[in-house]
What does this fold into?
Amino acid sequence: MPTAPAPSSPSPDRLALLAELEKKILWLAAWTIHNANHLRDNAEGIKVGGHQASSASLATIMTALYLDVLRPQDRVAVKPHASPIFHAIQYLLGRQTREKLENFRAYKGAQSYPSRTKDIDGVDFSTGSVGLGVAQTLFSSLVQDYVRAKGWSGEHPEGRMIALVGDAEMDEGNIFEALLEGWKHGLRNTWWIVDYNRQSLDAVVREGLWQRFEAIFQNFGWDVVVLKYGVLLEAAFQEPGGERLRDWIDNCPNQLYSALCFQGGASWRKRLLDEIGDQGPVTKLVESRSDEELARLMTNLAGHDLPTLLDAFAKAGTHDRPTCFIAYTIKGFGLPLAGHKDNHAGLMNPTQMDAFRTAMNVRPGHEWENFEGLSEAPEKLQAFLDAVPFNKREKAAVSPHIDVPAVLPTPGVGGKELSTQAGFGQILNEISRDDSDFANRIVTTSPDVTVSTNLGPWVNRRGLFALESMADTFKSERIPSTFNWEFSPSGQHLELGIAEMNLFLMLSALGLSHSINGERLLPIGTLYDPFIYRGADALNYACYQDARFILVATPSGITLAPEGGAHQSIGTPLIGMAQDGLAAFEPAFVDELATILRFGFDYIQRNGDGDPDERTWLRDQTGGSIYLRLSTRPLEQPVRAIDEELSRAIVDGAYWLRKPGPNAEVVIAYTGAVAPEAIEATGLLAEDRRDIGLLAITSADRLNAGWTAAGRARERGLVHAQSHVERLFADLPHHCSLVTVLDGHPATLGWLGSVGGHRTRSLGVEHFGQTGTIADLYRHHGIDAQAIVRAALALAPERPVRYLREASGPGV
Ligand SMILES: Cc1ncc(C[n+]2csc(CCOP(=O)(O)OP(=O)(O)O)c2C)c(N)n1
Ligand SMILES: [Mg+2]
It folds into this structure.
């Protein structure tokens, strides 16, 4: 634990170098934005979108952190709009290129918001959707503890997880959800530094917000450090009349303070003299300073005061308690935009920029030079940068691949009635018996639905994780219970409260452990499928960061019938298809599930590059995360051996359950729990239609992605490119029609007709909330066997079908 004694205050020489470099960082960030002349102009011809002001408010704090406080093992989530400051610092440290900065916000340039995957300068956590990066640091700290508790960290020193948080960002509810989870799990080593500039995007924030923050954080067991005044102001408060000045500032409304910051020294003077001028000590305090000195004094908030910040960070560095710093800052500090309530996306105009350049002593044509305009000797500055502790950080070693068994067994499943959800529980139960590295690296997590998503048997064997052991009182009191709820550092299940955002942020943190902790985990998270919507932004964020995990969503669709209408999910298959970085599967049978899971454990570890696979046109070597949409509906399980070819087809996304003959008139293509209806309809149709085919689709997502990619490849000249679904449909006669069906939105499979130009009718669920039995609901939504037959008949009406009954109502 980083419990070193507080280092003594930095020497004046060191402070002077840091102050010089802070100036340079502010300049480089402003210049990067200004220079990016592709930024759009607003109606008045003024460039917007640069966020010079928003980034400037963190310039001092980030200088203190990156050039002094941080150690290589520390990790930081930087507020989105502080990206230019981040990139400027990395540029000074030799970790960012001029070319990328010249292309800031442009094609392949440095990103507007720090990005793990798109930036080259070592972003620890992507940010952009405010609130998520903040909470991610908390979960990363919990994951660090998890990894250490397992004894996997070796000599790797413990890092601190740090978030630079906008004050308006604190409105995001997911931050508070995370706080509660942190409290439950004994959070350590986490710093959140609130950039208290009292401005949001639109305006100035409410008065006294800091007191609410302070109370909240203290409630959750955090240390709170309010950093309000810098050394100049503190010294002035000691002068005669200083107390009155302090009272005035303490009571100054945020709006007025911001406005005066914007207006500058003369306005400060007039306002102060009007309000507290006494022809005595206060007046003297004010009048003894020039306009410039007065402005400097009045804006000397702690968030812009290196000695105050360094001192506070050094003190907090002596313990591992989570700490919230509320640092008073000024949005746009050091720039002519400072304090203006409209400055959020503001950009200095050319005249302002010229004045700023002059003030910074930067000659035209020398804007990108590291030490241009600074008064300290370049060799001294360079030597300082070379010795920055953070800059000793090396690229994380690639964590070794964890071998996955060739097959995940599903003993005794064939011929039984079983749901995919129950099958999932059985597969994990089988794995849990195994004392392999593979089994030991799996970590499960669930937002209070562990038992109801069938993780119970796994948890019984592997236990819950906590830093401190906690017995299951029911067990010690010998009260019979199905589940063993024991916590210990060796446990492999992280139980979360209900908040689904936390599940996705936890998966994001677990799924980046190989990069952040250098130790790979195989994370599995379970939740009810409809609640993917609740966490969809965090899911998107996790994928954007390239976190690797397996998401098991169950129950799903209307098939959860007895659970009631409120929990039905209709659109999640479309989320599965559309979400970048997530391969979505919806198996119908447990042997398919085992095949997909096996693939999934390997897939989440891949990190390759190169051309797409010529069989599927998928880029499987790059890897990604996995989404399994499962069901509680017991289905009769096929008795079959999954050979290599079938296994490959299941992973590729589809296989013929009944191969169509050469004169096929109808093909039924289904996904997931409606398999029995599709099979029954095939049987009914087969009586009166020739060569009918039945296509089992295990992944609409992968089929679709491969098809799109193959099309693109052909358009680029690779005329023989053919995807898996194109190969499956290659021999279908043109007159063959297609009926698609799933328990989800029909658009999921609606595109299949375009693959080979076959007339298609797509069945699925478009309306929400009706309750009933599965049979009731399938009939109601038109995804039962009769509806499938009717759809087929409508497409190929030449001859009647004997087994078709009258439709029993208008449906929905
Ligand atoms: C989830 C989300 N909603 C909205 C936005 C748009 N947005 C970006 S920054 C911002 C306000 C930021 O205010 P604050 O956190 O105080 O940072 P400051 O600009 O003051 O530095 C908003 C609303 C966003 N990025 N993410
Ligand atoms: Mg703000």
